[in-house]
Amino acid sequence: MKSAISVFFVLVLVALCFFGCSNVPDEPATTALADYSYVNPFGETVAPPENTKENSSETYAVKYIETVNNVEFVLSSYYVYGNSVGTITNIKIEDDGISNNASGYADVQIMGIGSRKEGLKIGYTAYDKDGKVVKDVYLLAKLDGVKKGDTVEERRFEVPRDAVKIVFHDYVEKD
Question: Which of 34, 39, 107, 170 could form a disulfide with 90 if both were Cys (CB 3.0 to 4.6 A apart)?
Fold first, then answer.
């Protein structure tokens, strides 16, 4: 009987250790909105002069006009993946006008490292002006050599040019 009670207490103690080691904050995550803009150097083409004839052999160099794209970001106070926890502290967007998408860069501050030490995945979903999903993937903050409190800088993610809203969320593996 004493050994059964001892085994029970050992199991309870082990369970408490696992529950007590959680990196996830007790308070629920809060969300905030942030607006970002970036310049697309080749946003629109300039039409040829109106006085040109359709059948004319004259050629005109293609000219471009820069455009400014505005994107609304929905950010959470923290993200959890495999008991690792982090928060996005900074975002910047750059567009070379050549690639299929603009490049976003996020700084991720690590609040805790859990069981998936290969990296903290933060999911993001990009929407166009009609609310259609145009990208649904994740950015990865690699945790190799990183400890709690460190910031993993400039983690790249893609910003579709037709995106007007990007929502960051906890990443969940898809089947």
Answer: 107
- The DSSP code for 123 is E
d(Cα 123, Cα 136) in Å, to the nearest integer?
Answer: 7
pLDDT of residue 17 exceeding 70, the answer is no
Write the CB contacts of 130 (distance below 8 Å, at least 6 apart in sequence). none
- Taking only the tens place, the pLDDT of each residue in 76-111 is 999 999 889 999 999 999 988 788 899 999 999 999
Phi, psi of 124 (to 5 degrees): -150, 145
- Mean pLDDT over residues 25-53, rounded? 74
Alpha helical stretches, state H, the chain: 2-20
Q: Could you give the CA distance from residue 169 to residue 151 in angstroms, rounded to a whole number?
A: 19
pLDDT of residue 150: 95
Angle CA 52–68–161, to nearest 5 = 90
Q: What is the pTM of this model?
A: 0.75
Please state, as a whole number, how many other Cβ atoms lie within 10 Å of the Cβ of residue 103.
16
75 Cβ contact list (under 8 Å, min separation 6):
31, 32, 33, 34, 88, 168
| Residue pointed to by tokens 């080691």 | 21
User: Which residues on neighbouring strands pair with residue 127, listed in sequence order?
Assistant: 133, 165
pLDDT of residue 51: 60
